[in-house]
Amino acid sequence: MAHVVAAPDKFRGTATAAQVAEAMARAAAGAGWTCDRAPVADGGEGLLEALGGSVRRTLVTGPLGRPVEAEWRMQAGRAVIEMARASGLGLVGGPEGNDPLRASTTGTGQLVAAAIAAGARSVIVGAGGSATTDGGLGCLKALEPLARLRGVELVVACDVTIPFVDAAPLFAPQKGATPAQVALLTNRLERLAQVYERDHGVDVRSLPGAGAAGGLAGGLAAVGASLVPGFDLVADAIGLAERIEGADLVLTGEGFLDDQSFQGKAVGGVVGLAREHGVPVVVVAGQVEGEHGVDAVSLVDRFGEERAMHDALSCVEEVVAGELDRRPGDQAVRRR
């Protein structure tokens, strides 16, 4: 029996990675294929579901100061945190509701502190989806005294590789910052980098990934955290390469496929692993921008924006059913 691995990322604002993987699995069952559900993440939202653990919740300070009940996970002394649950842009209603100069990572620091207090000896922090460009200063202040970090392995799962100061010009506009505010945030990060080097002996300016989550990654790196590509961390944890090896097809997807999807993001990582093992791969995305040398289906192009946005899972199921029904067959790389 033909076998497919379903390894999608989330469709942000529409469906979780697990829901998309389940839709793919339903289509596979209907087509007579076996399916291995392997939802993935790249350090942003979805990391909790991908890595698992018992559910914990902690009341913390949200990005603009309001209390937020943030979910995190704990398993065998390892805590998994998504900074977006405590300091995310979605918590303030998107860029329109954000105050880019005031938004703080205090709540993320409170989550790390809660995990350590609960006995975690390893803490993974997913950096993605932030409302903040505070360089992690709020987080570090919430972790004081920093002596509590001794003996704790801190790992930041990054979904971008940008340097520390570049977090402001590249991503602050997406968080509601005006050009004048971007200039202020850039200067603030430059000064903060000097402070981190003076106080902790770490130059975060040249550290790849330090700009993730508005510089949160760099702030944590200054106090000893390791910065790792989020997709690689997830793929290793769930044994994705071994699961892909020997499959007849790999399915992946996300809400918006563009050039950034192949620069440290989950979809690009899945495509790379599939190619390494010589397994055909199909990307199902809400929208596709540009050509990427991969077999990609745009739900908006296929079904129209209204249905693609409001009935995404049935669209995914329909597309996958069609893909599986026509295989084996022409495997030429194309975009439809």
**Taking strands numbered 1, 2, ... along the chain, how are they ordered across the largest sheet?**
3-4-5-6-7-8
Under the CATH scheme, the architecture of the largest domain is Alpha-Beta Complex
Query: What name does the CATH topology of the largest domain carry?
Result: Glycerate kinase, domain 2
Please describe the biggest sheet, giving its number of strands, its sense, and whether it closes into a barrel.
6 strands, mixed
- The sequence of SSEs as H and E is EHEHEEEHHEHEHHHEHHEHEEHHH
What is the CATH top level name of the largest domain?
Alpha Beta
Helix content: 25-40%
Low-confidence stretches: 329-336
Number of strands: 11
Q: What topology emerges from the helices and strands here?
A:
Layout: E1 3-6, H1 17-30, E2 34-37, H2 47-51, E3 54-61, E4 67-75, E5 78-82, H3 83-87, H4 106-117, E6 122-127, H5 137-142, E7 153-158, H6 167-171, H7 179-200, H8 212-222, E8 226-229, H9 230-238, H10 240-244, E9 249-257, H11 266-276, E10 281-288, E11 295-298, H12 299-303, H13 305-310, H14 312-325
Parallel strand pairs: 1-2, 1-9, 5-6, 6-7, 7-8, 9-10, 10-11
Antiparallel strand pairs: 3-4, 4-5
Task: Give a verbal description of the structure.
With 336 residues, this protein is an alpha/beta fold. It folds into two domains: 3-33 and 248-325, Rossmann fold (3-Layer(aba) Sandwich), CATH 3.40.50; 47-231, Alpha-Beta Complex (Glycerate kinase, domain 2). It is 39% helix and 20% strand. A six-stranded mixed sheet has the order 3-4-5-6-7-8. Helix 7 (179-200) runs parallel beside helix 8 (212-222). The protein is globular and about 60 Å long.
